[in-house]
Amino acid sequence: MKTHVATPTNRQRDWYIVDAEGQTLGRLATQLADTLRGKRKPDYTPHIDTGDFVVVINAEKIKVTGDKLNKKIYWRHSGYPGGIKSRTLAEMLEKQPEEVIRKAVKGMMPRNKLSRAQLLKLKVHAGPEHPHQAQQPKPLEIQN
Predict the structure, then answer these.
(1) Given a cut of 90, is residue 68 above it in pLDDT?
(2) I want to staple 51 with a disulfide (CB 3.0 to 4.6 A). Which of 14, 36, 46, 98 is the partner?
(3) Would you list the DSSP string of 43-81?
(4) Domains along the chain?
């Protein structure tokens, strides 16, 4: 019996669209990470990029549980002494709603070169419009 290994020549990449309105941030991010990695496919191979492209719309209408809007803090550092900055989740949703979903999905991917390449297949848009109509994305089933 032979083991099937996916190769870049025989993989098939599909385009999916997800409406993030009313979705819980963490639960959505886990399923997006699985789709980007290709874990929903029967020919999943850990060291080959077999994942699909995912377009997320309405990123600004994501919901979170509890008091995370005020208590969850995103940190960044400029590299200079005293250069640490912070924003709450509510501020991030006002200024950069796309980055909230991107950072959540990035945190659920492994830390290697392959996952950095797979993260480029995630396209997040704050509103309902997106420029990926030509790829004819199919709706992705998200379980809550």
Answers:
(1) yes
(2) 36
(3) T--TTS----EEEEE-GGG-B-STTHHHH-EEEEE-SST
(4) 15-139 (3.90.1180.10)
